[in-house]
């Protein structure tokens, strides 16, 4: 065809994508292959100034095989979830081209691809790097092949939580009803500017790899936990409606309480799983107690914790509370052994503390004290990087820094 003659020899695109933190948790699938959840979930997308994944995707006539680099190390490109994302983006590209003749220089869908991806945060931070990772991969591939529009459905095929990283601000992933998953999509509930005072702190408790991964853990929960079934059918639908209202009204009291309750119920379903799954450790529980003591002292909800499939805490609070709470955390635990893992974020000031919030004896003597990150904020969805000097791959299609 005439289009064939105009095919480009090499195309390269770089995108960045954010991390998201769920306040109504996703836990459990009704379809493992399509990654369809048993309940809807809701999250806050974090700003990419602080935490982000960067991915460069390239396709070339000259590449002889598909290749992938994760943080500079070559990795297996045959991973079924990665292949599912690639297949879906190419299918959308084919569909789009079939429908319009104006595409002058389409990139051949048969060219092999090279992908390089990097996180600007330590994997040890225990943040859901797969969410940002797959959101970034899908964004970059879609740009590469000129695919526009709804892409959360494709990102979902990489990792369930990744579909929520396709949007900024406050994001809901609707479980959907259809068996083919076409209605299991993420959409924005409120933009990132909606709640300018909202802040997020990450307390790194442990850099250890988690004992039970999310995918395997939630499968066992679906198979064995009656509490999870009740949660998905009864509790989450009610909580979602309530959480949307708290967000709309910027009601931190309501938002914070429900965030803590939903995290606690998620961990209760893990305990209700057979054999049980334990993601929280002693230090996590000390942070929970500290947050409640802090709130009791103030007579209202000033900080809210949430924990995913690991012991690290994520704290939601408002700008005027950050300095005081960070000071309380620093004084409550022995000095961190895990160093300065977080270097990005807004500066945190210091605050003087009332007596009852000062160091408590239970905290001391615990290994690996939590290391508070600088304050993070909600932020936008995936971004295209215009500057070609930012590509992670060189013109030869190999990683720039470690070719
Ligand atoms: C506890 O999205 O990592 O973080 O879909 O199997 O890839 P897969 O699981 P994943 O699960 C995240 C679970 C969670 C809660 C949440 O982010 O909603």
UniProtKB/TrEMBL annotation:
Entry's Gene Ontology cellular component terms: cytosol
Record's catalysed reaction(s): (R)-5-diphosphomevalonate + ATP = isopentenyl diphosphate + ADP + phosphate + CO2
EC number annotated for this UniProt entry: 4.1.1.33
Compositional bias segments (type: Pro residues): 369-381
Enzyme class name: lyase
Ranges of residues in domain Diphosphomevalonate decarboxylase-like N-terminal: 17-186
Cleaved signal peptide residues: none
Keywords for this protein: ATP-binding, Cholesterol biosynthesis, Cholesterol metabolism, Lipid biosynthesis, Lipid metabolism, Lyase, Nucleotide-binding, Steroid biosynthesis, Steroid metabolism, Sterol biosynthesis, Sterol metabolism
UniProt GO BP: cholesterol biosynthetic process; isopentenyl diphosphate biosynthetic process, mevalonate pathway
Pfam families listed in its UniProt record: MDD_C, MVD-like_N
Residues of the Mvd1 C-terminal domain: 200-382
GO MF annotations in UniProt: ATP binding; diphosphomevalonate decarboxylase activity
Stretch list, region Disordered: 353-403
Pathway(s) of this molecule: Steroid biosynthesis; cholesterol biosynthesis
Cited function: Catalyzes the ATP dependent decarboxylation of (R)-5-diphosphomevalonate to form isopentenyl diphosphate (IPP). Functions in the mevalonate (MVA) pathway leading to isopentenyl diphosphate (IPP), a key precursor for the biosynthesis of isoprenoids and sterol synthesis.
Alphabetical list of NCBIfam families matching this protein: mevDPdecarb
Similarity annotation: Belongs to the diphosphomevalonate decarboxylase family.
Protein name from the UniProt record: Diphosphomevalonate decarboxylase
Gene: Mvd
